[in-house]
Amino acid sequence: MSVTTESTHIADAGLPQPSTAEVRDFVALLKPRVMSLVIFTALVGMVLAPQSIHPVLAAISLLCIAVGAGAAGALNMWWDADIDAVMSRTRSRPVPAGRMQAGEALVFGSVLAAFSVVILYLVANWQAAALLAFTIFFYVVVYTMWLKRWTVQNIVIGGAAGAFPPMVGWAAATGSVSFESIVLFLIIFFWTPPHFWALALLKSGDYAKAGVPMLPVVSGEDETRRQILLYSLVLVPTGVLPFVMGFGGIAYGIASVALGGYFLLLAWRVFSRRSAEDAAPAARKLFLFSIFYLFALFAVLLLEACIARLL
């Protein structure tokens, strides 16, 4: 190898490698599965609101909320690239996998965040835009940059970020926040710990390797199971509140009680089944059912509201 060629290789080694990111990598930054839940819960908040919003404005508002959620996901992946590279379920993400430079994710997320907030302000109102901006800030700064790496309560407090979308949807339609939208917030807020801790029981080794202070890593699996049961005992009656308060109908009342009862049964199984052959299946079943539980509750509320508007 010549001296010139060798010096060129040495110089190139200190330069950032060119990006090989494709469209699908930018889509992955948006966390589409999380975004779908955000869109759905925001839609429910919007439809349940007492004031209607023009369909075109509603569609644009939902798009803004979705883009804002995607922006938060992109910024999360930018900041967490180091620990994502260590964990098996996240190491294939665009930044830790080396298909995208961290700076690209930062710029992409920042531009989308600003765009979503400004457009929501223009098509809806400042209250909805302010709530969306706060949601992005809470998820990126409060949860991702602070809580996630520093406290075992990361999911409990940070879960608020995922609970804001129905309030944003409600605010987009009404320009205000009400007790009903706060109840929708609380359902998601109390749902998040048992949902995520069930996954954490299955992935505790990953979190320990990455140095993330998740509850099973810091306090042990037995304490995690106890906390799952305690939060489930709070979640289930909270899930019935829409019926008690009158903005959920008979169908919702029946669904919330039946689904809540089964949720508690699965939480009890997670708490009580601790043998190696029973613990993981119980946690996995609760994790999967928790997704269906939240979707079903909001779907029934949406269906009832749509039927009421048609009658």
UniProtKB/TrEMBL annotation:
<dbReference type="InterPro" id="IPR000537">
    <property type="entry name" value="UbiA_prenyltransferase"/>
</dbReference>
<dbReference type="InterPro" id="IPR030470">
    <property type="entry name" value="UbiA_prenylTrfase_CS"/>
</dbReference>
<dbReference type="GO" id="GO:0008495">
    <property type="term" value="F:protoheme IX farnesyltransferase activity"/>
</dbReference>
<feature type="transmembrane region" description="Helical">
    <location>
        <begin position="286"/>
        <end position="310"/>
    </location>
</feature>
<feature type="transmembrane region" description="Helical">
    <location>
        <begin position="34"/>
        <end position="53"/>
    </location>
</feature>
<dbReference type="InterPro" id="IPR044878">
    <property type="entry name" value="UbiA_sf"/>
</dbReference>
<keyword id="KW-0812">Transmembrane</keyword>
<comment type="pathway">
    <text>Porphyrin-containing compound metabolism; heme O biosynthesis; heme O from protoheme: step 1/1.</text>
</comment>
<keyword id="KW-0808">Transferase</keyword>
<feature type="transmembrane region" description="Helical">
    <location>
        <begin position="59"/>
        <end position="81"/>
    </location>
</feature>
<keyword id="KW-0350">Heme biosynthesis</keyword>
<dbReference type="Pfam" id="PF01040">
    <property type="entry name" value="UbiA"/>
</dbReference>
<protein>
    <recommendedName>
        <fullName>Protoheme IX farnesyltransferase</fullName>
        <ecNumber>2.5.1.141</ecNumber>
    </recommendedName>
</protein>
<comment type="similarity">
    <text>Belongs to the UbiA prenyltransferase family. Protoheme IX farnesyltransferase subfamily.</text>
</comment>
<feature type="transmembrane region" description="Helical">
    <location>
        <begin position="102"/>
        <end position="123"/>
    </location>
</feature>
<feature type="transmembrane region" description="Helical">
    <location>
        <begin position="240"/>
        <end position="265"/>
    </location>
</feature>
<keyword id="KW-1003">Cell membrane</keyword>
<keyword id="KW-1133">Transmembrane helix</keyword>
<dbReference type="InterPro" id="IPR006369">
    <property type="entry name" value="Protohaem_IX_farnesylTrfase"/>
</dbReference>
<feature type="transmembrane region" description="Helical">
    <location>
        <begin position="168"/>
        <end position="191"/>
    </location>
</feature>
<comment type="function">
    <text>Converts heme B (protoheme IX) to heme O by substitution of the vinyl group on carbon 2 of heme B porphyrin ring with a hydroxyethyl farnesyl side group.</text>
</comment>
<feature type="transmembrane region" description="Helical">
    <location>
        <begin position="129"/>
        <end position="147"/>
    </location>
</feature>
<keyword id="KW-0472">Membrane</keyword>
